Amino acid sequence: MSASDAAVTGIGMVTPAGLGREATWDGLCEGVGFGARDPWLAGLPVDFSCGVHDFDGGALLGKRITWRNDRFIHLAMVAAREAVADAALDTDTWDAPRVAVVLGCASNGGDRWAAEYRNLAEGRVESISPTALLRSLPNMVAGEVSTDLQALGPCLTTSTACAAGTTAIGTARDLLRTGACDIAIAGGTDCARVPMGSAAFYRMRALSENRQDPAGASRPFDADRDGFVLSEAAAVLVLERPEYARARGAHIRGYVSGYGASSDGFHPTRPDPEGAGARRAVLAALADARADVSEVHHVNAHGTSTPLNDRVEASMLSKVFRTPPPVTSVKGAIGHSLGAAGAIDAACTVMSLERQLVLPTANLDRLDDGMDLDVVTKQPRRHRMEAAISDSFGFGGQNAVLFFRAA
Amino acid sequence: MEPAYDLMARLLTEHFGIPEEEITPDATFEQLEVDSLARVELITMIEDRLHVALPEEHGDATVGEAAAYLDRLVADRADREPAAPTGDQPVAMAGPAR
């Protein structure tokens, strides 16, 4: 641990594997997929997803707050409250202007757009809700969480597609380093299981079309993978400078010790076939942490279950590490939650280091030909780890990697 | 048709999460912490349900006053056009789509 590290003192998660941090961890340890037929997507070519089906934002947060915002904000608020409680921070007495909020979001809310566009098209402008914009804009998730927690420092949303959650945590770490804040609430959220999300990603041929087996459709690194599965989730970490956390007697779960970002400059959706951008981000994160590749004892992979991403990622990891350490992708269990994904991976990586357990990759039955990876499957694997990385790659060629050390 | 007061009280509770016991005819929107954004949303929902056009309520209006005004509007319209449209539920009224 060094003074430039950020201590992780709180974690909150809401995912298809469970409502809450421990419920999510336990669900992921089962090593099974949570995909299922989705009534919201009925009638579409891809009518299944991974959802947090027992999540009711109004019941958990109160309709006084939730009436005006979309589900992706509700998910983030619940995860943020859990993270702050886990960090044993008192929002009534903390130095509010010194608390930052940085949340990643790949898309925006979509709960009401279909209805509001119908109102617009049919000339009913007066029927459009005054909340149409504010309930759905990406920046509003950071704004609403800041208001809810009374975290009054720098407040922003990062938009780097499927890397947004990772970018948010890296950016928050940087805010701590520059002294712009003492505490950062950082993570990501998205509710991607909306009809237009399914239709648009289907049109890009990005989704699994395995309607016969929704629970087995997301299968990272498997020979039979055919695309990703839409999901919804939020994960939030509380970050503090180590001396600040220690001074208040906080329990430190782990450290963000390195952050690297890069861009492919290659294609809107396809990764650089050599994985050059991804590789540069991994090496940048290691350099930032002043760590050698041999110090990486586990990789929490992006592993989306799309044919191309997983192939390029596997090959990149083999090149960087020669013999890569144990790898996992939690997307086999909970699908791809876009802007939340990197934050979930970060939270899981910290918990893996804490518990010395690598989570299993659900649905991986037969590793694809040409992949020389040790991917953990079926059940959690006990493994000695001092440090690990979590990598995320977004459309637009936007890459972000975090390096974590055990506490 | 549901009396305007009952409709308003129901929306304030079901959609805006205001506890039922706080809603009385004498309570002002300000007292209920129904801010201007929420008032516009409420008006939008009522207009779509009752098929009337409303001015924006002031925060110091009471729920009872607003309901009485609404009942008058609906009654006036019924006098003028006996076959007022019913049942035609506009989309935005359905509340959150999911």
Automatic annotation (TrEMBL), chain A:
Gene3D superfamilies associated with the record: 3.40.47.10
Chain ranges passing through the membrane: none
Domain Ketosynthase family 3 (KS3) span(s) in chain numbering: 3-406
GO BP term (any one): fatty acid biosynthetic process
Record Pfam families: ketoacyl-synt, Ketoacyl-synt_C
Alphabetized GO MF terms: 3-oxoacyl-[acyl-carrier-protein] synthase activity
Keyword Repeat annotated: no
UniProt keyword annotations, A-Z: Acyltransferase, Transferase
PROSITE patterns for the chain: KS3_1, KS3_2
SUPFAM superfamilies, alphabetized: Thiolase-like
EC number: 2.3.1.179
Keyword hit for ATP-binding: no
InterPro entries documented for this protein: Beta-ketoacyl_synthase, Ketoacyl_synth_AS, Ketoacyl_synth_C, Ketoacyl_synth_N, PKS_Beta-ketoAc_synthase_dom, Thiolase-like
SMART domains to which the protein is assigned, alphabetical: PKS_KS
Family as reported in the entry's similarity comment: Belongs to the thiolase-like superfamily. Beta-ketoacyl-ACP synthases family.
Protein name: 3-oxoacyl-[acyl-carrier-protein] synthase II
Organism, as annotated: Streptomyces netropsis
From TrEMBL, chain B:
Gene3D superfamilies, per database record: ACP-like
SUPFAM superfamilies, alphabetized: ACP-like
PROSITE patterns for the chain: CARRIER (PS50075)
Chain segments carrying region Disordered: 78-98
Location of the Carrier domain: 2-81
Superkingdom of this protein's organism: Bacteria
Residues in the signal sequence: none
Listed name of the protein: Acyl carrier protein
Species name: Streptomyces netropsis (Streptoverticillium netropsis)
